[in-house]
Amino acid sequence: MKRRHLLPLLAAPALLPRLARAQAQPWPAGTVRIIVPFAPGSFTDISARLLAQELTGQIGQSVVVENRGGAGGTLGATAAARAAPDGLTLLLTDNSYAISPSLYPSLPYDALADLAQVSRIASSPSILLVRPGLGARDLNALVAMAKARPGALSFGSGGQGSSAHLAMELLANVAGMRLLHVPYRGVAAAIAEVISGRVDMAIASLASGVTHVRAGTLHGLGVSGAQRAAALPMVPTFIEAGQPRYDMMYWWGVAAPKATPEGTINRLNAEIGTALRAPKLVEAFAAAGATPVHSTPAEMTAHMAREVALWREVVQRAGVKLE
Predict the structure, then answer these.
(1) CA separation for the pair 172, 166 (Å, rounded)
(2) pTM for the full model?
């Protein structure tokens, strides 16, 4: 296990008494379900299944994943917000949860008030993926191609207003490109369409794109972050590729219904922290280009508030509206 993966998990000795008390909390009887508000195949789904497997072994009862995709992740989030606050229902989501409040004027839940944040579990750089036949071997060539043919190049995403959609809108804005958006039901479907050649490009988490770049079915033209990703060292950063203003990072986190007792939230947080230290999970995350991140509920709550504010600004600047 790499030291950099362990640091976020072990760097706060002051948390140990709280975690010990959390471990003493009784676990509610019954099957625990982790709602993933997207179709199977994305890293959100994969990480949920890895987490469920570890938690099942730790607590000695079944932890299952339930995919409830649709409406940019809001259907699954609604189901989680309305679930009984008994610790048996969790939501595992990503950036899209913080985006939805800016896209849906009348959500059936309040993103900051109706779910209790438990912990982040992972982070990953974003990566720009293009089909090999496009002829753009670097980002400068792609930008030049897009500027020469405004609106001709297409990009796929996990749906109108999804994190993959807005990530590309942000890149198009800073690079001065005008692109054609083609939404799909999930980022995995969008990536498959880029591989097939039916659309030209997509932005996804490194975790979702790493295997395709390694296999040569897609080209990676840039990754976010200050340095190249260890999982794909041949792909330059956006800074190296000529777009230093682009630095969108993906994250994943777990939440529970708002009225879930504090003791249960702390127990959930402690169990997640233990799961994130499991060598099998750490190795699987690293292979996918993601880094485990364990945060306190308070840290995750503050992170979510910042993300909601950030994406509100991006949505307004790009003029993105749901169709």
Answers:
(1) 10
(2) 0.79
Backbone φ and ψ of 309, nearest 5°:
-65, -40
Give the mean pLDDT of 86-108: 93
Q: Is the pLDDT of residue 149 over 60?
A: yes
Task: For residues 312 and 309, give the distance between their C-alpha atoms in angstroms, rounded to a whole number.
Answer: 5
136: number of CA atoms within 13 Å, CB side?
23
pLDDT by residue (tens digit) across 259-299? 999 999 999 999 999 999 999 999 999 888 889 999 999 99
Distance, CA of 110 to CA of 304 (rounded, Å): 12
Residue 125 near residue 205, CB atoms below 8 Å: yes
Q: Answer whether 273's CB lies under 8 Å from 97's CB.
A: no
Domain boundaries, the chain: 3-123+250-318, 125-223
Q: In DSSP terms, which residues pair with 202 in a beta bridge? A: 129, 156
Confirm whether 3-123+250-318 and 125-223 share one CATH topology. yes
| Distances 36 to 126, 140, 186, 223, 236 between C-alpha atoms, Å | 20, 36, 12, 25, 31
The C-alpha atoms of residue 267 and residue 23 are separated, in whole angstroms, by 6
Contacts of 260 (CB under 8 A, 6+ apart): 85, 86, 87, 116
What distance lies between CA 283 and its chain's CA centroid? 18
pLDDT, tens digit, for every residue of 19-56? 444 555 667 789 999 999 988 988 899 999 999 999 99
* 194 CA to centre of own chain: 20
Q: What mean pLDDT is predicted for residues 160-188?
A: 91
CATH topology of domain 125-223: D-Maltodextrin-Binding Protein; domain 2 (3.40.190)
CATH fold label, 3-123+250-318:
D-Maltodextrin-Binding Protein; domain 2 (3.40.190)
Mind listing the pLDDT tens digit for each residue in 221-245? 999 999 999 889 999 999 999 999 9
CA distance linking residue 317 with residue 313, whole number of Å: 6
